[in-house]
Amino acid sequence: MAQVKRIRRNVSGIILLDKPLGFTSNAALQKVRWLLNAEKAGHTGSLDPLATGVLPLCFGEATKFSQYLLDSDKGYETVMQLGQTTNTGDAEGEVLRTREVTVGRAELEAALPGFRGPISQIPPMYSALKRDGQPLYKLARAGEVVEREARSVTISRLELLECEGTRARLSVGCSKGTYIRTLVEDIGEVLGCGAYVAELRRTQAGPFALAQTVTLEELEQAHAEGGNEALDRFLMPSDSGLQDWPMVSLSEHSAFYWLHGQAVRAPDAPQFGMVRVQDHNARFIGIGEVSEDGRIAPRRLIRSE
Questions:
Q1: Is the dihedral of CA 133, 41, 239, 263 positive or negative?
Q2: CA separation, residue 223 to residues 13, 226, 231, 234 (Å)
Q3: Were both Cys, which of 19, 104, 193, 261 would link to 55 (CB 3.0–4.6 Å)?
């Protein structure tokens, strides 16, 4: 008997998931996509299986803007395990070295200022960065270690929340591309005892905070009670991640030409930069960039939502 192909729904928007422990970001995305029965889906940057917290999932037209969320600043709370290092930099790895912990809150507080502001990091081997088309974590699992170039990141917030015994909880605000595992390992080396990430929770991704998220259990319950459509109430508008961008309104005439790829003028446009664009009915229709001549050039279009 031939299998009936599932017809997926054309839905658009963002669901802010509180990613559960043990899930890869892609596994979480595919689970929510199945519950929503969405035609098109994508996430905005991976969280390790060990990590939980804010994971914006984009569906339909919202996938066109996922890159801008990927590039946004992030916030985390992490628990450092002092006195040991692992091959992965977190609790999932094998212990490489154990050292005595002779430091406490005062020493930790004294070490943190050296990691605030612009810092240099060497990405870990257990990361999704690629070398000759191969993710580094695959090379690491095969026992290979390759040279990685240091990269510049910015730590905007680094605070000690708790310190008890050999564990310390930190609050971190950082730029894109920051590896919390590397940050924790580097702090551990400055303290002289080593450290790894025992727990990691993302508290913020761009404009999105933990308080706005929905759990997988809540989504599953909604699906059980009302099917795919019951999840639609959790969808945020496709431009939710761009709320700090200026909004420009176009007339019906200008919107028509803009949606056909032509740059147009708008009376309320800023002098430069990226903008959100809405039509005469206040419907979000995409993003544009203000050119030197003051016209708004289309960059990503939404034709229907």
A1: positive
A2: 17, 5, 7, 11
A3: 19
Question: How many whole angstroms separate alpha carbon 271 and alpha carbon 11?
Answer: 34
| 285 in Cβ contact with 258 (< 8 Å) | yes
Confidence of residue 132 (pLDDT cuts 50, 70, 90): low
Superfamily of domain 72-203: Pseudouridine synthase (3.30.2350.10)
| Tokens coding 182 | 């590397």
Instruction: Kindly state the average pLDDT of the residues 133-147.
Output: 67
CATH topology of domain 245-299: 2.30.130
* CA gap 148, 136 in Å, rounded: 10
| Annotated catalytic residue 73 | no
Q: Per DSSP, what are the bridge partners of residue 56?
A: 16
Q: Are 122 and 136 in contact (CB under 8 A)?
A: no
Query: What pTM did the predictor assign?
Result: 0.89
Structural domain spans, the chain: 11-69+206-232, 72-203, 245-299
CA distance 29 to 46: 10
pLDDT confidence of residue 305: 47
Answer for the pair 284, 239: CB distance below 8 angstroms, yes or no: yes
Q: Contact at 8 Å (CB) between 86 and 196?
A: yes
For residue 33, CA distances in Å to 6, 21, 22, 251 come to 13, 18, 18, 36
> Rounded to the nearest 5°, which phi and psi values hold at 65?
-115, 10
- CA torsion sign for 23, 24, 25, 27 is negative
Based on its alpha-carbon atoms, the radius of gyration of the chain, rounded to whole angstroms, reads 22
211 in Cβ contact with 235 (< 8 Å) = no
Q: Do domains 72-203 and 245-299 have the same CATH topology?
A: no
Active-site position among 48, 90, 239, 279: 48
